[in-house]
């Protein structure tokens, strides 16, 4: 009844006659981004990037980054958990992590803390902006930025007292409450901001066997703190702290591809994290700026699921069914230290033409995994199982530098280089061990041309890289045991422009990427070690060549005082070249010339804002993407889809009420898919099984922002 009432309310708001009034929308400040070593206006940064501000986050009722990523062209997300936690940019990125340790292609940073292996951490309360940088960021981020980087930046403390309170009620028994307080602790010397947010929802699955509607629930607590010490006029020290307590359920897959589960042992997708970043910015003199960042995070994670998606007595014993449960418990510790020196206004070199940056970076990451698996073959009532353990430790040491040289008043040459030494140590309880190491290089060479004050063109040749690794599954052959470091070259050209006296802002980027020794995840189905059905055996191989070609376009147009249009388009042609999997060829699956997994050929967003009366704003958008393969190991695909979202907002002084809805027409779409045999009633025939994306969700948010 609540869902129906809210749906009727938002539909009425969308279709009711609008009141015409002369309204000037609030001036939007330029978005300052940290895409390069020096903060810069987004439109003056020679990188293909999308910025998502807090107003956009609020208008969508967004709790996690997965709720806003469709706004960024050529960015996809993979779930297979309670949330989408694995990101792909321009068709490059991981889709899951099981036994084998993960070396990410897409970096995820929250206030300077590296969460590239833990995408569930990207909650959005009190986040000021999200930056999505597409293309290799080899000079600044190294191995974590081969495909691109996602940065989340929380709201900064100021010298003014700031308070925010927010409360949300939504369908599926969703409710959230958050509070943030910031201001001077010591006037003009010590500033602080602290926030805490709780989000709870039953989720979007019904477990018919257990009679519950919350086995895929979301229970997430985020606490942030930021202290800014203005020690002197020349020295600023920032301390960011983050606590996450995520206790989500995982019960997403069903034998009939519905939202009605029959599992008797629902899993979990949980994370408990404590982290901090300590940053210093010191203006040593008018020639040199010194910066440092020390970050640390410690996380306990659990990922578990009902391996048979069913209950023990569901099938006839003659079908030889089984009952299984799989659990992965990880402990992660990440420590990173970075020192950087930058030129100031009088520190430029080469006849005062060149700004310079030099830096050193050291990180140590440690992960311990305990995997517990057991199954019960019902015909014999025999219980079998095993516990496996592994540890994975990496140390990265990097030196980097960048020169920004003004060749003329309008033309700037950007040259960057990073050398990174990577070493790893892997051990597991099966006796497998390895200590790989590698010296990797990345960087960029680019030109930025200010055509005039309204138009900036750029072109960049950049190199990204990612370390190799080890395939830990014991059932694969020895010749597949390890895979090599991957590298890529990316050539792109772009144009960023202001039109119509700044009312229309556009950006356009075309790119060509050539990947060498591309790390391609494969999987094969093998009989279970005991009992019926099949197991997945995942492993990485190196494909000699993969090429990605595409385009990204974005538009932001204030047509007049009442109307604003926002649009984006991503086109992508990402294909495997000269690679075949012999086992798949026997099944008639040819990979050469085929699009790689999770790389839709197009993505788009078209939306608008209507300021129809004092304090009132109506926003709506449509966002969609093309079909894509779920894996490089079978032919199962998602379908193309379009989602419609809208909100109506009323703001009076410090108070704001927002009625919002996502996926208003309740479109079925999928965020993860597998192809294998699991259903004993079909003699374990191989079929496609999918995880649904979020259905229609409608909510009401009340906020006070002082």
From TrEMBL:
Any Pfam family matching the protein: TonB_dep_Rec_b-barrel
Keyword match Transmembrane: yes
Key words, A-Z: Cell outer membrane, Ion transport, Iron, Iron transport, Membrane, Receptor, Signal, TonB box, Transmembrane, Transmembrane beta strand, Transport
Topology class, membrane: Multi-pass membrane protein
Top-level taxon in the UniProt lineage: Bacteria
Residue span(s) of domain TonB-dependent receptor plug: 43-149
Entry's localization field: Cell outer membrane
Residues annotated as signal peptide: 1-21
The TonB-dependent receptor-like beta-barrel domain, residue ranges: 234-664
Record InterPro entries: Beta-barrel_TonB (IPR000531), Beta-barrel_TonB_sf (IPR036942), Plug_dom (IPR012910), TonB-dep_rcpt-like (IPR039426)
Subcellular location, principal: membrane
Keyword match Transmembrane: yes
Similarity annotation: Belongs to the TonB-dependent receptor family.
Name of this chain's protein: TonB-dependent receptor
Organism: Methylophaga marina
Source organism phylogeny: Bacteria, Pseudomonadati, Pseudomonadota, Gammaproteobacteria, Thiotrichales
């Amino acid at each position: 009844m609540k869902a129906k009432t809210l749906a009727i309310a938002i539909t009425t708001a969308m279709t009711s006659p609008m009141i015409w009034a002369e309204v000037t929308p609030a001036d939007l400040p330029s978005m300052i981004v940290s895409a390069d070593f020096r903060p810069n206006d987004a439109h003056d940064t020679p990188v293909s990037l999308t910025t998502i501000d807090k107003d956009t986050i609020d208008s969508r009722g967004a709790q996690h980054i997965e709720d806003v990523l469709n706004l960024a062209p050529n960015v996809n997300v993979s779930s297979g958990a309670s949330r989408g936690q694995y990101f792909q940019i321009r068709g490059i990125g991981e889709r899951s992590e099981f036994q084998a340790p993960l070396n990410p292609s897409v970096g995820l940073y929250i206030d300077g803390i590296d969460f590239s292996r833990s995408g569930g951490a990207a909650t959005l309360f009190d986040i000021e902006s999200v930056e999505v940088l597409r293309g290799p960021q080899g000079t600044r981020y190294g191995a974590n930025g081969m495909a691109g980087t996602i940065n989340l930046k929380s709201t900064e403390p100021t010298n003014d007292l700031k308070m925010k309170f927010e409360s949300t009620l939504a369908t599926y028994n969703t409710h959230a409450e958050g509070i943030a307080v910031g201001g001077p602790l010591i006037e003009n010397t010590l500033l602080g901001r602290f926030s805490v947010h709780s989000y709870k929802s039953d989720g979007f699955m019904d477990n018919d066997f257990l009679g519950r509607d919350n086995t895929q629930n979301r229970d997430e607590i985020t606490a942030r703190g930021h202290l800014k010490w203005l020690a002197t006029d020349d020295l600023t020290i920032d301390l960011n702290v983050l606590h996450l307590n995520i206790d989500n359920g995982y019960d997403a897959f069903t034998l009939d591809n519905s939202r009605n589960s029959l599992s008797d042992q629902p899993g979990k997708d949980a994370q408990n994290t404590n982290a901090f970043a300590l940053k210093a910015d010191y203006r040593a003199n008018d020639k040199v700026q010194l910066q440092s960042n020390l970050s640390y995070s410690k996380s306990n994670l659990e990922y578990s699921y009902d391996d048979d998606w069913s209950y023990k007595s569901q099938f006839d014993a003659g079908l030889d069914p089984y009952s299984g449960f799989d659990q992965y418990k990880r402990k992660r510790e990440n420590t990173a230290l970075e020192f950087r020196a930058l030129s100031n206004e009088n520190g430029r070199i080469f006849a005062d033409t060149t700004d310079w940056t030099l830096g050193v970076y050291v990180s140590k990451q440690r992960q311990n995994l305990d995997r517990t698996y057991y199954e019960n073959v019902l015909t014999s009532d025999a219980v079998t199982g095993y516990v496996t353990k592994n540890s994975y430790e990496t140390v990265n040491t990097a030196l980097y530098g960048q020169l920004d040289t003004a060749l003329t008043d309008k033309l700037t040459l950007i040259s960057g280089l990073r050398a990174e030494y990577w070493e790893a140590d892997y051990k597991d309880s099966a006796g497998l061990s390895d200590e790989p190491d590698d010296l990797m290089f990345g960087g960029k060479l680019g030109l930025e041309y200010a055509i005039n004050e309204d138009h900036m063109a750029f072109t960049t040749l950049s190199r990204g890289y990612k370390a190799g690794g080890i395939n830990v599954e014991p059932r694969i052959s020895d010749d597949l045991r390890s895979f090599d470091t991957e590298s890529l070259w990316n050539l792109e050209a772009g144009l960023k422009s202001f039109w119509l006296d700044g009312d229309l802002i556009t950006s356009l980027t075309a790119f060509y990427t050539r990947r060498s020794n591309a790390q391609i995840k494969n999987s094969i189905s093998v009989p279970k070690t005991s009992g019926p059905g099949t197991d997945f055996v995942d492993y990485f191989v190196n494909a000699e060549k993969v090429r990605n070609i595409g385009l990204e376009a974005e538009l932001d147009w204030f047509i007049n005082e009442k109307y604003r249009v926002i649009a984006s388009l991503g086109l992508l042609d990402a294909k495997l070249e000269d690679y075949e999997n012999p086992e798949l060829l026997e099944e008639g699956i040819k990979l050469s010339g085929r699009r790689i997994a999770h790389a839709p050929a197009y993505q788009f967003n078209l939306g608008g804002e209507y300021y129809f009366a004092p304090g009132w704003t109506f926003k709506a958008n449509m966002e969609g993407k093309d079909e894509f393969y779920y894996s490089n190991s079978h032919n199962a695909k998602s379908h193309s889809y379009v989602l419609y979202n809208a909100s109506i907002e009323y703001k009076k002084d410090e108070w704001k009420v927002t009625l919002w809805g996502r996926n208003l027409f309740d479109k079925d779409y999928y965020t993860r898919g597998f192809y294998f045999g699991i259903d004993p009633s079909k003699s374990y025939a191989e079929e496609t099984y999918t995880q649904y994306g979020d259905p229609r969700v409608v909510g009401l948010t009340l906020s006070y922002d002082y």
